Amino acid sequence: MAFWDYANPTRFLRLVQVVLPWLIGFCVLAFAAGLYMAFFTAPEDYQQGNTVRIMYIHVPAAWLCMMCYTVMSISSIGTLVWKHPLADVSAKSAAPIGAAFTFMALVTGSLWGKPMWGTYWVWDARLTSVLVLLIMYLGLMTLWRTMDDPIKAGKSAAILTLVGALNLPIIKFSVDWWNTLHQPASVVRMDGPTIHADILWPLLIMAVAFTLLFFVLHLMAMRNEILRRRVRALRMRAASVSRPGTAAATAQPAE
Amino acid sequence: MTGWAMALFQRDLRLSVRIGGSALVGVLFFLAVVTVIPFGVGPDLNLLARIGPAILWIGALLATLLGLDRLFQADREDGTLDLMLMAGRPLELVILIKCLAHWIATGLPLVVAAPLLAIFLNLDPVSMGAVTLTLLVGTPALTLIGAIGASLTVSLRRGGLLLAVLVIPLAIPVLIFGVSSADAAIHDPVPFVTPFLILCALTLIAAVVGPVASAAALRFSAD
Amino acid sequence: MELGTHAGFIIASYALCILTVLVLVAWVRIDKANQERALKELAEQGISRARREHESR
Question: Up-side HSE of residue A160: CA atoms within 13 Å toward CB?
C-alpha cells in the first residue's frame, strides 16, 4: 500500500485547496472581460455580420479540445513511464471535460455554419476531424467505465490515448486529403494573419478564460477522483475486515 | 527462432480455420453487407458503380471488426495467453505472427471474395482489380490496428462492441486512402500511385504501432 | 445590443455553451458531494484513513 504513503495525493489536495479560489476568481474575471468585449466592443465582420460573435466561443472551444488531448497524452506518458498515480487521475478526469469542449466546438461550429454555409453540417476537414476526436473521447471514457480496477483501466486508457495521439495527425492529414478530393474550396475561411485587433483581443481573452475554466474543472475533477479512490480503498479494507478469511488476498490489488 | 514462430503461425491458422469456420462467416457477412446496400440506395447501376469501391471497403472494414474480438480472447480463456506472456519470446513478434495468421484466415478470404462481389456492384475490370489490390494492401492494416483494440478489451466479457468503437476512429485513414486510391484508378483526378503508396505506408506504420501497443496492453492486463 | 438577423443562432450557441459548462460544474459538484458523503459514512463506521495510518505505525 505504498500509494498513500508517498502523500502525493494528499499534498496535491492541499495545493488544490490553495490554488482553486484564485483560479476561479481569474476565470470569472476573464470571462466577464471577454464576454463584454465580444458583445460590446468587437465590431461586426463586414462579411459575416454579427455571427462573427460565435467565433469567440467556437475558436477557444476548438483550441481547448486539442489542448485537453495534449494534457491527456502527457498524463498517459506519466502513467506508463513513471507510473505516477496522479498522472492516471489527471488523464481520467480530463476526458469528460475534453469531450464537453469538443461537443461545444461542434455545436457552435454548426450553428455558425447554418447562416454562413446555409447548412448545419458540411463535411469540412476541420469539422470532420473534430467529430472523430469526439468519438475518441467517448471511446476512452467508455473504456474507463467498463474496467473495474482503476490502475489497469488507467494503463489501458493510457495506451489508447497515446496510440490516438500518434494517429490524430494522420487522421487530420487524411481527412484534409479526402476533403480536397471531394469538395472544392467553397467554405468561407477566416484564418490568415490579418485579423483585426478589435477582433483578436476579445478572442485572446476568451481563449485565456476557457483555458482557466479547463484548469478549474480539471483540478476539481481530479480532486473528486482522488476522493473516489480513497472511498474505494477504504471500502475494500472494510470488506476485508468484516470477512477476515479472504481478506489478505483480496485487499491488496487496489493500489 | 523460426521454429516456434512457424509452430505458432500454424497453430493459430489451424484454430481460426477450424473453430466455427470464422473465415467463412466473415465472407458471408461481407456478402450480406454488400447485398443490403442496394436495398438502401436503390438498384441504380451507375450509382452502384460509382460508390462500389466505398461499399466494398466499408464491408471489409465491418467484417474485419466482427472477427477481431476472437484474436486474443480464446487464448485468454484457456490460459494460452498467460503461457505466451511467460514464454519469454518477444511479445511484439508473437502478436505480429498471430495477426498474420488471423489475417490469412479472415482478411484474405475477403480480398478473394471482393472481385466476385464487385460484379454485383457493376464495377468494370479495371476498378475490380484496383479495389482488390487496395484491399490486399489495406486489410492487414485493419487487422493490425484492430489488434490494439482486441488486446485492450481482452479482459472484458463483452468487449466486441467497445472494440469496434475504439478501433473505427483509428481505421479512418486506411479507409480514406483505400477508397481514394481505388477511385483514382477509375476516375483519375489524381494518379493512382500517390494514395496507393500512402496506403502502403499506413500498413507499414500499423505493422509497427499495432504489435508494440497491443503487446504493452497485454502485459498490463496480465499483471 | 443589436444582434441582427442571425440573433437566434448567436443566442443558441452561447446558451448551449453555458448549459454545457453548467452541466460540467454540476457534475463536478455532485460527484464531490457523493464522495465526501461516502467518506463520512465510512468514518462513522470507524473506517478512516487516520485510523489506518495509526494502525500501521
Answer: 35
- C26 and A CB contact within 8 Å: no
Evaluate whether residue A238 is within a structural domain.
Answer: no
Indicate the number of domains in chain B: 1
Domain membership of residue A245 (yes or no) is: no
CA neighbor of A110 nearest in space, from A82, A131, A93: A131
User: pTM for this one?
Assistant: 0.86
Instruction: Name the DSSP class of A38.
Output: I
Amino acid at A202: P
Instruction: Dump pLDDT digits (tens) for A218-231.
Output: 999 999 999 998 88
Summarised one tens digit per residue, pLDDT across range A41-51 is 777 766 667 77
Nearest Cβ partner for C38 among A4, A50, A231: A231
Answer yes or no: is the ipTM higher than 0.95: no
Q: Locate cell 484492430: which residue?
A: B146
Neighbouring chains of B at 3+ CB pairs under 8 Å are: A
- Tell me the Cα Rg of chain B: 18
Measured distance CA(B128)–CA(B186) in Å, rounded:
10
Cα–Cα separations (whole angstroms), residue A121 to A127, A187, B62: 8, 12, 25
